[in-house]
Structures are given as C-alpha cells and as structure tokens.
C-alpha cells in the first residue's frame, strides 16, 4: 500500500518524467483520487503502443526494475510490464489492453486526448476505467465507478 503524500509525490514525479508521451494514470490511483478507495495498491499507467518502449526505458532509467509476474491466459494485452522501485512501489504499464473470453477478444481503445492534467498528474477519465474494469471482470470496481459516475451526472443536472 502507498501512503497518500508519498503517492502524490511519486505520481507527480512519474508524470513529469513521462510528460512528452501519451499516457494516463488509472486503476486504484484514479479511484483514490476520486475518493473511492483509501489506499491504492499500485500505479497503473496506460499508454499508446507507440510510446510503450520509450516509457519503459524511462522507468528503468528512473530506478524502476522490470519484474516477472505469471501471465494469465485471460489477458491478451499487446504490451504489459510490471516494474518495482527500490522504494517498494510498483507500476503496471499497459498498452493495447485486451481480454480473451469465450474465444473472443475484447479491446479497450486508449484515447490519450481524453486524459486531463491536474496538479501535475495526468489522469485517465473514470469512464475509461469503468470500461477496463468491465473487461477485467472486476465487479466491485465496476459498481464503485458506476455509482460515482451516476452521482456526478445527477450533480451536474441539479
């Protein structure tokens, strides 16, 4: 688990490092930023396939080490790497997200122009992570984001 102050600092550093590339922060960090979880477990970065190699190289230069993790046949993501920093925090870098289910591959199309910068951090839209969590079969996360988006929508109508 990451502490909030350390997480904000690390996210700001990462986003500054990657500012010239197309990427966005999502996953439990996004849920934390939205007030839906108390402590994120790791940092999820989504990027374009074109920028995956450059971002991976920058992470390694910044002290992140590639870690081997067991593959899951459900995932058909084009590019994925798991990194760990000496400080103990981990980063999952993904591009071309796809899931295999019932002999069908479902894909998530990353649109970096939909990401927004706030306080030095490039956040993905919650609706994109709703889609990703649906693909991943993460029903608890889907419910959290659906409720958040409904409340956001209701708030904008009043």
Explained architecture:
This protein has 158 residues and is of the alpha+beta class. The protein is 39% helix and 25% strand. It has helices spanning 4-18, 27-33, 52-61, 126-136, 139-157, and strands spanning 23-26, 43-47, 64-67, 79-85, 90-95, 98-101, 104-107, 116-118, 121-123. The protein has a 5-stranded mixed beta sheet with strand order 1-2-5-4-3. The N and C termini lie far apart (37 Å).
In short:
The protein has helices spanning 4-18, 27-33, 52-61, 126-136, 139-157, and strands spanning 23-26, 43-47, 64-67, 79-85, 90-95, 98-101, 104-107, 116-118, 121-123. With 158 residues, the protein is α+β, with helices and mostly antiparallel strands.
Give the helix/strand layout:
Layout lengths: L3 H15 L4 E4 H7 L9 E5 L4 H10 L2 E4 L11 E7 L4 E6 L2 E4 L2 E4 L8 E3 L2 E3 L2 H11 L2 H19 L1
The percent range for helix content is 25-40%
Q: What's the β-strand tally? A: 9
What is the averaged pLDDT score?
A: 92
- What is the topology, as strand order, of the major beta sheet? 1-2-5-4-3
Taking the alpha carbons of the first and last residues, their distance comes to: 37 Å
Which stretches are low in confidence, meaning pLDDT under 50 for 5 or more residues running? Answer: none
The structure class reads alpha+beta
Distinct helical segment count: 5
Order of helices and strands: HEHEHEEEEEEEHH
Strand content: 25-35%
Radius of gyration: 15 Å
Which shape, going by the Cα principal axes? Answer: globular
Summarize the main sheet. Answer: 5 strands, mixed
